[in-house]
Amino acid sequence: MTLQSTPSPDARALTIAGLETVYDTLAGAIDQAGAAKAELFLVKLALLNANALGDEDLFRHHVQTALKDL
Q1: Sign of dihedral through CA atoms 43, 46, 50, 52?
Q2: CA 40, 46, 60 angle in degrees (round to 5)?
Q3: For residue range 8-57, what is the model confidence (pLDDT) as tens digits?
Q4: Residue 52: domain span
Q5: Which residues are within 8 A (CB) of 38 and not within 5 positions of it... i.e. 6 or more apart?
């Protein structure tokens, strides 16, 4: 799966190693939340990250990109 986004000009992209660390952190947190709370956890995480991103159009673009090829 290839994730593509259109970052803002001042955004810093993660390295492959950084993405792997993020993936491992996310997978562990989903396991910790458990199946019954995984969806709630992911929504809370998305809202926190959208707020940190500070760009609703870019967030909308990321949502549409993530929905591709599910």
Answers
A1: positive
A2: 130
A3: 555 679 999 999 999 999 999 999 999 999 999 999 999 999 999 999 99
A4: 34-70
A5: 30
